Structure formats: structure tokens, C-alpha cells
Fold this sequence. Notes:
0% strand, mainly alpha, elongated
Amino acid sequence: MSMLQSLGVALFVSLVVSSGLVVALTPPLRGLLRQICPAGAAENFWTRFTVVMLFVAPMLVALLFGLPNRASLDPDMGQLVKQVISATLFGAFATLAGIGWKLASLSK
């Protein structure tokens, strides 16, 4: 498998995982931000910031740690998808943990 194909798999998996998270989390996030942020502009900013972070951070982790390096043997598709999913989910978990920690400290 070429590096370009591996990159395509990593981007696709990352976009699918991030899209699912954004669809699931945006409505409750908006509700929470309405309670925390009295101004509508702040709510919009933090919602967009969170959405961007839910796309960028998992993709970055997937590209940095999910792709095989050139020195390693070419992985088969199953192994590559497993590595990319693991890296993407770790990036998503770390992002959600950071966002959740910050929102929990604000909503007290």
C-alpha cells in the first residue's frame, strides 16, 4: 500500500469519527454554552472552536501516529485501519477530555 493510499485511509477514518462526534455533541454543547455564556457571540465562538478541535486534533494524532513510517514494512489494509482508528480515537478522547475538563470548571 502506498503512502498516499495510507494517507487517504487516515483522513477518511478521522473525518468519519470526528463527524460522528460533532453530530452527537453539538446540540448538548450549545445548550450548555447558552447557560455558561450570557452573550450569543461567545456561544457561537466556543461552539465553532470545539467543532474545529474535534476535527483537527484527532486528524493530527492519526497522521502523526497512525501511519506507518517508511522504514517499516507495508502494512495490510486491516492493520493500517486498526492503527488509524486507534490513533484517531485517542486524539478524540484527549480532545474531549480537555474540552470536558474546561467546561466542567466553567459550569460550577
